[in-house]
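Thanks for the sequence, V.! I ran Peptidase S15 right away. Repeating your input here for the record:
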Amino acid sequence: MVFNVNDQHLKIKKEFPRKVREIRHVWIPMRDGCKLAARIWLPEDAESQPVPGLLEYIPYRKNDFTALRDSIRHRYFAGHGYASVRVDMRGSGDSEGILYDEYLPQEQEDAEDVLTWMAAQPWCTGSIGMFGKSWGGFNSLQVAARQHPNLKAIITLCSTDDRYADDVHYMGGNVLASDMQWWASTMLVYNARPADPEVVGDKWREMWLDRLDKTPPFIEEWLSHQRRDDYWKQGSVCEDYDSIKIPVFAVGGWADGYTNAIFRLLENLKGPKLGLVGPWSHEYPEVATPGPNIGFLQEALRWWDKWLKGIETDIMEEAQLRVWVQDALPPSVNYQSREGYFAALESWPSEQTITESLYLQQGTLNKHVTSSKLQRVESEQVHGLHSGVWCPFGQAGDLPSDQRLELPFSHAYVGEELQEPLEILGFPIAKLRVASDQPLAMVAVRLSDRAPSGETTLISWGMLNLTHHASHEFPETLVPGHFYDVDVQLNAIGYRLPAGHQIEVAVSPNYWPHAWPSPEEVTLTLDEAACRIELPLRTARLAEDDAISFEAPETAAVLDREIVRPEKRKRMISFDPVTDTWILRDYSDEGARLLPDSGLEYGSENTNVFSIKKGDPLSAQTTSTWSLHIGRGDWQTRVESCSKMTCDEEHYFVYNQLSAFEGDTQVFSREWKKEIKRDHT
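Predicted structure:
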């Protein structure tokens, strides 16, 4: 995860309507006596002329690892008349306590205590908004559902309403091999970083050793809940959409892993709501790639001014959903920008869309059933290696390669050349009648755009653990040879195919490394007479003079920093013919930065390796290693970790090792080993 700021294309504002005062450290007391560390930006005269508050509440360290990104937004909001508060969650950064897991009730209770504290400050009017990307977007929704009286509106970016359906743990009931162990290893090493002695004083070492000793590897809990049980329902606001009564602005991008939730939120929330989807990765729209970038902070101000200051901006006169429809481009693992346009939909679901079905017929896509063939689809364990990163952060190499590389490992159906452009907007759904020769199996479906040159760009994809076809909460072992009617929902997408291109649909019982493979090699049989892809097509066309536009992106100036070591990324796929093993190696040197205002230097390196042997699903293995350092002068610390996940027919095996160093002296080392029974996965 790279927390970097590219300010080359931004309009940097240094003068604001209100002069800004920054309070670099404040303690906020919790009801149990624990203290959380906060950084605050607010107008200089806020104590005599109180302002609404804004809260960003995340575990990623306000003083170093997110200091750059924090500086361009919080100061901007403060300069426009808000007290913008950035809080390190319990057990992170300089805050006291232990972070035992994601999205626990304790986390939400702490957030309520922060809101109460903010509302009581002399600089605050008592009206508060929450915002955040990813973790901060999650807890903005979760805290909104608790109906704190001072929380009046939220902006949630790159988050989800359903922790089981759309997060780094599971997808379609499958163990998300590409991300579950990687993210667990990330949080293990993130949680192992020490508090700053200049903030917490001499107790920093005692706090550090306590964190190292008590913070668990999160994967052990995540992998112990392989079905959608109460563990995942807690913190999933889809369990009771009606509990959220305040206005919600949901934002994301097609290159992100969480955009599906925006459509569900718009469909199910009863209160004021807006959705915004661009071409962006897992990042704020003013800095994200692929572009184009927009003036998102100006949009946020229109939202906050409306709901926190009572100013009648025109934000709610916008269409309920503004969504970027991407034009076709040749496949690339890194787009700097995507061509297309913003479409306006007055509501979601939209009357501007219709559903068109294309049937899977002997290698072709037809509007009518022409064949009743039974088609066998064999296992190829390496299918998916060219699928890209599940949740891109905008790094080079994140996006899917040419899907022709995947064709030998799946069964494809190709439509006729389009006679006119076709615009897909919404959730494609593959409706399949499928049988498996094994009691445990999954299916993956890819939807692609094949150009006349043959180049094939991935549009969207989805997958389903077939034992979950009726329920993610109550899976059922398959009867081999029995046909099941299943729906495989693909990720929501906005994409326009030009005339002359072809639609391609590919089916496979494997999608490595996104899906952990079934314990046995699987052969699926498709009853083609009952297999189709349903495409949500947008029928409206936007006149040129009706095009939606945004202001150019602007931010406050980024905090001064020195580049000690530049970032670097390598992503390589290799095959060892001696062992029949395919290896995907993903290396990210996230660089090192020095912050002159505090003297802190920090940096990190991460390597992830995914390996599997042809014909051997039990050979699947994921390995993640991390090295992070942070220090100032004579105070230098480093944490290192190694995490692995393997399996046999009945169990998953997870291994975690963590070491911590003060200078060159090792002060902590521990191993965790856990065997977890497979549960219909």
